[in-house]
């Protein structure tokens, strides 16, 4: 008597999963997309940090002017290119030398072109004690000019 196996006559089901070729192809596509997107993301982050540094610098200048007006005493802000920081100063109401307010604060994402000290008067007027009324911030090949008028208006030029 001869026995036949009936299970060999059944149709075979495809196995679940991916073949090695499919996995290699998908991995290659993912690596190519990552290689293209990483430099783009780095450039966007660099631009974001630079714009943030420009905004922080403008806000620091305006805040110093507002403090001088609000407190009725001259205030100053000094930008140091060596450390990429700025320091706030106030002058006592009785007069005398400017005294620092707090510690120097960093500006990250940009470098100042020159040491600049702006003095804000209680009437809102601004004068340059050191440097000029314009301050240039650079980062790589990007550059922005921050111009402060004698009346305290702050303007950013590309």
Using brief descriptors, characterize the structure shown.
alpha+beta; 31% strand; 158 residues; five-stranded antiparallel sheet; rod-shaped; minor pseudopilin epsh fold
Give the SSE map.
Elements (H helix, E strand, L loop, with lengths): L19 H52 L3 E6 L4 E6 L8 E8 L4 E2 L3 E5 L5 E5 L3 E6 L2 E7 L5 E4 L1
Antiparallel strand pairs: 1-2, 1-5, 2-3, 4-7, 5-6, 7-8, 8-9
Walkthrough of the structure:
It is a single chain. The protein is α+β, with helices and mostly antiparallel strands and 158 residues long. It has one domain: minor pseudopilin epsh fold, CATH 3.55.40.10. 33% of the residues lie in helices and 31% in strands. It is built from one helix and nine strands, in the order αβββββββββ. It has one helix at 20-71; strands at residues 75-80, 85-90, 99-106, 111-112, 116-120, 126-130, 134-139, 142-148, 154-157. Strands 3-2-1-5-6 form a five-stranded antiparallel beta sheet. Strands 4-7-8-9 form a four-stranded antiparallel beta sheet, covered by helices on one side. β7 and β8 (142-148) form a beta hairpin. The chain is rod-shaped and about 120 Å long. The mean pLDDT is 86.
- Count of separate DSSP helical elements: 1
User: What Rg, in angstroms, do the CA atoms define?
Assistant: 31 Å
Strand order of the largest sheet: 3-2-1-5-6
Largest sheet: 5 strands, antiparallel
Order of helices and strands: HEEEEEEEEE
